[in-house]
Amino acid sequence: MDGVINLYKPADITSHRAVQKIRTILNVKKAGHAGTLDPFAEGVLLVCLDRATRISEYLTALPKEYIVEMLLGVRTDTYDITGTVVERRDYSSVKEEELHSLLKQFVGLYRQVPPIYSAKKKRGIPLYRYARKGIAVEAEPQDVFIHEIELLDFSPPLVRFKVRCSRGTYIRSLVDDLGERAGTVATVRRLKRTAVGEFTEEDSMTMEMISEGRYRLYTIDEALYFLPEYRLSERELYLAVHGTGFRIEGDIPRNIPVRLKTDGRVVAIGTVGEGNVMKINKVLLSED
């Protein structure tokens, strides 16, 4: 069963556990996801099955959209409501118009520090392992990109906003930074991922639907809709399935992944480099 399922992950379950449940329900050999959702978060989680597990890195690179509910006046050690409160601060000076302006400041390239309770690694070890052992370490700042951000509701101490952002963006860090810029502190009370690329909440499926056989399985070709494609000749097909590169004719973008197809199937992922040579990055299907 090669393909991708747009799962609506419920809250209070890890992404890994959600994937394992789908693997059991559908009785597949391999399953993985394309972008972790925190246990307390809910929403779109792309689950890759069997050979589609090999394309998860490309799906992970897609922009994400979230609906965020933040709680003003409270900071926790995890930057979300599941953590221990470490600070309380007055938030009465925060006004709606000011918050509109502050949100706009985050649009574009934005440098953030990942939460200490995160899977981000330092010296090969996830940060949360240091945190759980009480070992003080500094997370390295990283550049992310905020495509758009919009205030949806201002009802202090609760604030809701929508954000579309690049891969690797920690919404918990965004909320912590927003609280500081607003002259108070803040934490994430609720988080819902509403889209990954063009995979949306509206098109997602619950575990109950999947267990009842009511689900859509996106083919590898459909899931990689955002990559350019190249149709293989018989000779190129032979070379591609054996991982051998070849020179191509035509105008194909360089240095970005390309779907290499035959008979409507994606056989491999390649990249065009110098001299118009197609390098094979991943072989997805055999010659048959």
Quick synopsis:
The chain has 288 residues and is of the alpha+beta class.
Explain the overall architecture:
It is elongated, with a radius of gyration of 22 Å. It has three domains: 3-62 and 198-221, Pseudouridine synthase; 64-196, Pseudouridine synthase (2-Layer Sandwich), CATH 3.30.2350; 228-283, Archaeosine Trna-guanine Transglycosylase, Chain: A, domain 4, CATH 2.30.130. Helices cover 21% and strands 36% of the residues. The chain is built from eight helices and 18 strands. With 288 residues, it is of the alpha+beta class. The two termini are 16 Å apart. The mean pLDDT is 92. The strands form four sheets. Strands 1, 2, 3, 4, 7, 10, 11, 12 and 13 form a nine-stranded mixed β-sheet that branches. It has a five-stranded mixed β-sheet with strand order 14-16-17-18-15, covered by helices on one side.
Give the helices and strands, then pairings.
Elements: E1 3-9, H1 15-26, E2 31-33, E3 42-49, H2 56-60, E4 64-72, E5 74-76, E6 85-88, H3 96-105, E7 108-112, E8 121-122, E9 125-126, H4 127-132, E10 142-155, E11 158-165, H5 171-181, E12 186-196, E13 199-200, H6 207-211, H7 220-223, E14 229-231, H8 234-241, E15 246-247, E16 257-262, E17 265-272, E18 277-283
Parallel strand pairs: 3-12, 14-16
Antiparallel strand pairs: 1-3, 2-3, 4-11, 4-12, 5-6, 7-10, 8-9, 10-11, 12-13, 15-18, 16-17, 17-18
